Amino acid sequence: MFANYLIGLREGLEASLVVCILIAYLVKTDHRDALKPVWLGIGAAVCLALAFGAALEFGSQEMTFKAQEALGGSLSIVAVGLVTWMVFWMRRTARHLKAELHGKLDAALRTGTAALVLTAFLAVGREGLETSLFVWTAVHATGDGTVEPVAGALLGLATAVLLGWLFYRGALRINLAKFFTWTGAMLVVVAAGVLAYGFHDLQEADFVGGLNTLAFDISSTIAPDGWLGTLLKGVLNFQPDPTVLQVVVWCVYLVPTLALFLAPPGLLSRRGEALGAPSSR
């Protein structure tokens, strides 16, 4: 549940900040007449995300077991790829997000109503689709039903909406760069578990071998249905009897991704110059 709460909070706060920046800019520049098409675009983006999530959930129920596992594993890999790109992009652009959105709004205001609807739709729709996909894959990975994971995601989204409103009212000010860095790091850890379980799904679908080759089995110490096993599974997608492939995938993704994500922004360029790479300056 916590992992899905984090997903809902992280993605929802991005969308909330985007909405707040769009609305505040239109109000400040005395373009209140443009608020209606912006809200229309936001509403359309939310509907698209809900429809996408419903299509994933109900469409997969008509499949055979192996087809479900193949779909779940494939979408897990796609979701991890999208989330990884998102956390790196947000860390890099968090400080400049406001200016970037203002520029897009200025261009849309000059073009007309349809451009405003499209700007708001695209700005919010990306986060909505990513949230639906990642929550669905996380729910599928835990296999504990949909009530608690979905409740966690909804609580995260509700928290994000509240924080967005407080940002808009000026009642809450935090360092967004640090916030997105640390929540992004936690999402990378969650994504590693989703990726590992995605490969386990592909093993169960017979797309990848090694299903019966376990790296270790500590089920007698950490029972899967015990409180600790349930907690670790809900937060980290941990299982006490992973395959060798799952452990390898988890390590290969998590270690370099987390190290690169937490590295100082100028570290790679400085190392390149130290090794004799031509400077861009």
Average pLDDT level: 79
Largest sheet: none
Low-confidence parts, pLDDT < 50 over ≥5 residues? 271-281
In terms of DSSP E residues, the strand content is under 5%
- Amino- and carboxy-terminal Cα gap: 47 Å
DSSP strand tally: 0
Listing every helix as H and every strand as E from the N terminus to the C terminus, the arrangement reads HHHHHHHHHH
Structural class: mainly alpha
Separate helix tally = 10
Q: What is the general shape?
A: elongated
In helices, the fraction of residues equals: over 70%
Radius of gyration: 21 Å
Multimerization state:
single chain
Quick recap of the structure?
The chain is 77% helix and 0% strand. By secondary structure, it is mainly alpha-helical.
Index terms:
mainly alpha, 0% strand, 77% helix, 281 residues, disordered C terminus
What does this structure look like?
- The model is unreliable at 271-281 (pLDDT under 50).
- This protein is 77% helix and 0% strand.
- The protein has helices at residues 2-28, 35-60, 65-93, 97-111, 113-142, 147-169, 176-204, 227-236, 244-262, 267-274.
- By secondary structure, it is mostly helical.
- It is built from ten helices and no strands.
What's the SSE blueprint?
Elements: H1 2-28, H2 35-60, H3 65-93, H4 97-111, H5 113-142, H6 147-169, H7 176-204, H8 227-236, H9 244-262, H10 267-274
